[in-house]
Amino acid sequence: VLKDNDVWTGYGNTLIYVTGGTLLGVTVTMLAGYALSRKDMWGRGFLMKIFVFTMYFGGALIPTYLVISKLQLTNTRILMILLGSVSVYNTIVVRSFMISNVPDELYEAAILDGCGHPTFFAKVVMPLSKAIVSVIALWLAVGYWNSYFSAMIYLSDPKKYPLQLYLRQILMMASSVAGS
After folding, report:
1. What DSSP state is assigned to residue 43?
2. pTM for the model
3. I want to staple 79 with a disulfide (CB 3.0 to 4.6 A). Which of 29, 73, 123, 179 is the partner?
4. Considering only CA atoms, which of 164, 170, 114, 175 is closest in space to residue 9?
């Protein structure tokens, strides 16, 4: 198996998808979690209701495929990075972490020192959030590493297949040989 060049191509693709998706996912999740944790954010309750609604009633496979094909993202590496990067569940976990671990008094003190939201997020919130960043990064990385279904549906170019799809093909060939 290790002598097969396609396996190494798949391994490289998987590393691209895991690295890019994890970085994008952690960035977006942390920013969204911070924004939703701020009590002074306008429309926070309404946005949370919309987020929770999408957790229970997500789009089905066919409408999702139609949207992705209309956006001309099928058979692209960027799609494989975008697909699993943002999760409502992860955002709610980060929001809850920030509500319970970043006191409002820190923000009030930062405002008195002339600090705005971007500086407060970068210099105060992120250093206090190392634990949740690690957890979210681990969840995202494992999710990307194990993902093969999205690639099976949206990718047609074998040069873009992740390792898991190549391993699936090897198993399918082995089972067909054993069955005959």
Report:
1. T
2. 0.90
3. 73
4. 164
CA 29 to chain centre: 8
Secondary structure (3-state) at 145? helix
Beta carbons of 1 and 128 less than 8 angstroms apart:
no
Per-residue pLDDT, 170: 85
Q: What is the pLDDT of residue 58?
A: 81
CA 160 to centroid of chain Cα atoms? 19
> Percent of the chain at pLDDT above 90?
78
Nearest 5°: phi and psi at 69?
Answer: -70, -35
For residue 101, what are its two tokens? 């671990």
Give the pLDDT mean for 170-178.
83
Residue 175: CA atoms inside 13 Å, Cβ hemisphere, count? 6
Closest CA to 140 of 28, 33, 18: 18
